[in-house]
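[audit] Reproducing an earlier prediction to check determinism. Same input, same settings, fresh worker. If the tokens differ from the archived copy the diff job will pick it up downstream; this log only records the rerun itself.
[audit] input (447 residues):
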Amino acid sequence: MTAHTNDFSVGSVRQRIIAQAVPLTLAQVVQLLYNVVDRIYIGHLPDVGNIALTGLGVTFPVIVIIAAFTNLLGTGGTPLFSIARGRHEDDEAERIIGNVFALLTTASVVLFVFCYLFRRPILFLFGASEVSYVYADEYLQIYLLGTVFSMLSTGLNGFINAQGFPRIGMLTTVMGAVINIVLDPLFIFTLDMGVRGAAIATVISQAVSAVWVLRFLTGKKALLRLRRSQIRIDPGRTQRIMTLGLPGFVMQGTNSLVQIVCNNQLQMYGGDLYVGIMTVLNSVREILSLPVGGISSGAQPVLGYNYGAGRNDRVKEGIRFTAMLGVVYTALAWLVVMLIPRPLIRIFSADAQTISVGADMLNLYFFGFVFMAFQFVGQSTFQSLGKAKQAIFFSLFRKAMIVVPLTFLLPAAGFGVEGVFLAEPISNAIGGLACFITMWRTVYRRL
């Protein structure tokens, strides 16, 4: 029964993807609560809520950089792991887990030391003002203490999902997020720790998630385990992991680059108010992007397994189904944004000016949101089938080659601060369609 359940080459492809996608989406929703709940509580702090939220927004690029390195190693290892499983190469699959664990641990120590020692110049480079820096530093210096927990829980959780245990993977983030939700008001308000309290709650919740992942992967329930004898960094295997993980790293890295450029341009043309609004808009985007991201993530192990097993007909069916679901969902999400922009902003702030200006910027930022689905589907297909070069190119194309230049050009061309928000929808349309059409013509038709 267990072997059949975890064999993605049998049964309905659609049901396999949904079975993976639903718990993964729920897990990602809960994962998002780690940071979103912090933003909600901090945004409603008496008197200092808006500037504290701006300070938190300045720390985003640092957090995204840590996530980028997690993706480099975690999402690089899981496709190789799925392909090895499809070929029934269990020893190689376990070596991949051990190698990723060693890489994640090493990278977390290096990132912690560097970011902690240089956090002041980093935060000012990322758009902090003298006022917002105080809150950004309070949050970041504690958040960085949980770097190893964050990277291990997120980077290794994919190996649980790739073995056909998406519910266990979901529990990884559910437990952590519930703890974070419970501890946030306790530390922030009851103990009057403010921004520091939010960071402490996050670190504790990440630690619990990391322990859960490690206990499962080293326990008897896992089909393939993390074994002490396999924990080593092999140069050849590391190169393959990083090659496949590079698209995810580039996507997250360019997200950080975009946020840095946006923060600096927003400070120049609008000030702290608009940096805070962008923090809220990023939060709304993260929430609304989760289902399409969950669908794409749920499809990846199914596509990778069937590709490794030589079942190209099932791979094609999975691509079609993922694209259809993604387009339908993002169209509905776009409609929601147009209908209720102000209530979405109110979740994060009670300030009248933030709500009024933020609602207008939200409609600009989300225009044409449906094109985001094409980027997700094309990107995940390239990555699932081990086509790293294409995935890397389109990661760079949308963010580094479209968003960043437009973020500089549009405000200077007369659009002012609104130009910063317009760069995102333009890049979604151009980058998303280019990625999907290329995938369809060069991969789908050849399967």
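[audit] rerun output stored. Observation attached for the diff report: The chain is about 85% helix and 0% strand.
[audit] end
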